[in-house]
Design a protein that fits this description.
CATH topology: Deoxyribonuclease I, Chain A
Strand order of the largest sheet: 1-4-5-3-2-14-13-11
CATH architecture: 4-Layer Sandwich
Strand content: 25-35%
CATH superfamily: Endonuclease/exonuclease/phosphatase
Radius of gyration: 17 Å
Shape: globular
Helix content: 10-25%
Number of domains: 1
Distance between the termini: 26 Å
Length: about 300
Amino acid sequence: MGNTTSMTRRMGMRSAVATVLAVPLLGTVPASAAKPRTRRLEVMTFNLRFASTTEPNSWAARRPVMRELLRREAPDVIGTQEGLYQQLLDIHSDLGPHWDWIGTGREGGSHDEAVAIFYDTRRLAPTEHDTFWLSDTPRVIGSNTWGARLPRVVTWIRFSDLHNRGREFYVLNTHFDHVSQYARVRSASLIGDRIAELDRSLPFVVTGDFNAAAHKNEAYDTLLGAGLVDTWDTAAERGRLYATFHGYQPLTPDGDRIDWILTTPGVTTHRASVNTFERDGQFPSDHLPVQASLTLG
């Protein structure tokens, strides 16, 4: 378990021996003037689609659309998946000087995809953070024991909410395997176990691309059985539902939600939505971001 007093500010990480914690990738830009105070916490989960030079839908083509979307929506915290190191630096630059981020590559280096958490430093201050692998050996960097196609990780941060009298809460962000259902179910079970080991008196927000349809998969049921609720179901107001993975094809109304924002039951969800923003036919990613407006309680 790390904490912010000992965080390295060097970009990159040590891909080290088993059981040694990976040093996270972090942003470096300081906070600036505060935005208007509010107790509602705006959360987004977004599979970024890794940066590629292949056309169509290269990162060069998608980045301006991504920048416009993120600046327009201005969430307080974003759980991202598939981000490559330089891509995360690009997003950090595009978000502006009042953002920071923490994340670790799934194989323990800066060359592979990370599940990074971006946060607005005017609103949120991390007090602890950690990374663990979704395997039987979660402290072993790059471990993969459940037959997943790739190693998978969870990044979590304990935040202090500067606009809510320092109210603390956790954000956990992950990306489940896209091939192995067994790995998805075991991953969900491990996350439930890890949540039980943290301070359960605090609210939790869990973001991710789970590669499993809500209400249709045992991994989803496992996470709800661990005491989480789906913000899409608990929201007082919802936007139009679309399948959250579109693969740059026409959108599918009322399709499967494989990207979720879950919370503990004491959190109030005012609104949940799937964001369909595009510019001249160019989507920022092959997934649609999912958003929730929350009050932590």
